[in-house]
Fold this protein.
Amino acid sequence: MKTAGIVLAGGQSSRYGRPKMFEIYNGKPFYVYSVHALAENKLEPVIISTNSLLADGFDKTEVDLIVEKDTHNGPLFAIHHVMKQYDEPEWFFVLSADIPFVTSAFVHRLLQHRHSDYNAIVPVHGEKLQPLLALYHRRCLPVMDTVLQENKRSLMALLKNTKFKTIPFDEEERFFININSENDFKEYKGLK
């Protein structure tokens, strides 16, 4: 069952003030943690979806780089854009580029549920759905087309219109910590 990995790295980082995916944590840029978590599970290709302003900042040796022509249209648009360009993968494992605590074990745990007849597999952290760290089947494409034509940009709009499975995670699990501001980074920097 061919599964690709997508790292969403085209955001504006407006709250952070500069492209946060390039911030260094324990010697590696944030986005590299997502790339490695996907690659260590033998997902291929691993694709970084970004925009032309950020594209030159990524190490392209381990990844395919997809540059969105229409920038800042949100994660649903970015995932749709990537899926349309890759015919072979059935599943696409999506991770954002600002989650330096994500691990290959987290990715492995979700991958165990690919054999279901669901169109998406979404972790729940505490009581909150985490659609930016989830698996999406190619069957989502027609629904994505419809939702985007209705000018809806959120992944929640997709999930409201497709069959998805939730996987619970304890609140203390740190995979889901995303860095939105420099204060967030200072707060979590000491974590290993």
Observations:
- Residues 3-188 form a domain with the Spore Coat Polysaccharide Biosynthesis Protein SpsA; Chain A fold (CATH 3.90.550.10).
